[in-house]
Design a protein that fits this description.
mainly alpha, single chain
Length: 110
């Protein structure tokens, strides 16, 4: 099995995830702002649900941001692991090539 990934794949993924996190936070804030004119327009269970939404919106935003931050941390760890693994693989190859006897592999006619 062969696994081939470009050097910039995880960097690009982290950048896109970071942008998505910002976009998500902005969208949630826009939702909260859009609901603002409705405040005070509900009675009974509608008021309870609306107040609960407003009360929980900031917490939900914080939880989503914390989750996305954890994802970014995981992506960063993967990037470090792949990078160090790639570097180690290169160093191992150089070490093996340095100790190889390439002259012994030459084919000479008799």
């Amino acid at each position: 099995m062969k696994f081939d990934m470009g050097a910039q794949v995880l960097t690009s993924l982290m950048s896109k995830s970071r942008n998505s996190s910002t976009d998500l936070g902005t969208l949630i804030q826009q939702l909260i702002n859009a609901a603002q004119p409705l405040e005070g327009k509900f009675n009974g269970q509608g008021k309870v649900a609306f107040d609960s939404f407003k009360e929980r919106a900031d917490g939900i935003t914080k939880e989503l941001n914390a989750s996305l931050s954890a994802i970014l941390g995981g992506q960063s760890g993967m990037e470090q692991a792949f990078s160090s693994g790639d570097q180690e693989h290169g160093e191992n190859a150089k070490t093996q090539m340095a100790s190889a006897n390439f002259d012994a592999a030459r084919f000479r006619g008799r």
